[in-house]
Amino acid sequence: MTDKTSLAAGTFAGARARIQDNASRGLWSSRWVFFLAATGSAVGLGNIWKFPYVTGQNGGGAFVLVYLACILLIGIPLLMAEVMIGRRGRANPDGAVARLAREAGASSRWRVVGWLGGLTGFLILSFYLVVAGWALAYVPATFSGGFTGVSGEASGELFGALLADPLRLVVCATLVLAATMLIVGFGVRGGLERSLRFLMPGLFVLMLVLVVYAAIEGEFAQALQFLFVPDFSELTAQSVLVALGHAFFTLSLGCGAMMVYGSYLPEGTSIAKTSILVALADTAVALLAGLAIFPLVFGNALEPGAGPGLIFVTLPIAFGQMPLGQFVGGFFFVMLVIAALTSAISLSEPSIAWLTERFRISRTKAVLGSGLVLWLLSLGSVFSFNHWADYQLFGKTFFDTLDYLTTNWLMPLGGLGTVLFTGWVLQRHVVSEAIGIRNAGLFQAWWKLLRYGTPVAIVLVFLNLLGLI
Ligand code: TRP
What we know:
The chain is mainly α. It has 21 helices and no strands. The chain binds tryptophan.
């Protein structure tokens, strides 16, 4: 009712009050649900598809160690900052940053940090859907025994045939998009929360089953050695940058995703503790994925550094050889789709929240409108592998360009904006109160890291990308 009255007043203040009205925006029903949602966002293709293949490409243990350091020293401080901005701003990333800037007496131009994040998430989602679609396509292909006894070459050809078939790719990406939009369309409580409650625990259980299977059937000791015994001679400057970039991607940072989830977080929950738990869970899933995949890779004499095809080309060979492989493999791809879906939801929520709050359109309209734009954009990614494979800009297809632009530029830029805003624009006491770290020493350590360590690390990445270092 307050909602209606304020709207009826028709004033700017009324609209703002509506935006900030927690009841109308919806809140997670508990800290546990926020934890599920944030973990669902963090855990995705990044953990299960990307982490194993970049680890394989970068030599294993030493890379894993650097990646863990990046999560700890850069990822966690930034994650806490994003959640804090969201909860204190109680709006979509654009609105939340603008509000906090105004409170701090700073220029509301800082809101660019918010909307750029939403835009980045939107662009990522358009190609993320396509990769999630590959995983979806592999579900029936694996369950039906399509990979039984397959050779390396034949598996590569099967993957190639999928990429060459725009219709199959479009159908799969569209199904993932439809599922994402359906869930997001039902809103925070109704849609996101209800689905996360069973999606996340289900994912964990499937993951454990697969690790146990890999431990029994694969070369577990060799995988442990590969993942956890660092060989620093394998580590290059480039690997350090890959590790940093991946830390961003895997924790869903720099896109407003964690801000918007933070904006639904009830008061009184410790942001620091919850963020650390989310990072731990995310890391645990990545390591579990490594433990599920590498024993099979080594057990079947496959190449750990095979690249993005590690899962889609080499794993089916392993599934094709092992007893009951079609079921283990089928479940594996189901798991990948689930993980991708909970991430896709978080990639779309910042822009959906922005559309509904900024332009006061209904959630349904926002979902249908952005769904259509996303679908059109995703066609560009689909055609990058077939019809448009030859149309390249600077040697990159549409898909590669989007990936490069978002992962290497827009996400770190969003992260940099967020840390500079939090560390240098917001007042220390405001941040301290909002973040809720009671131990003064701990707060000081986080604050220093956020003001100096994190921005310097991100700037180093940019300088490297520009070829300056
Ligand atoms: N973290 C997810 C993964 O590892 C991907 C993701 C979801 C994401 N939301 C994001 C990446 C926001 C960047 C920004 O697959």
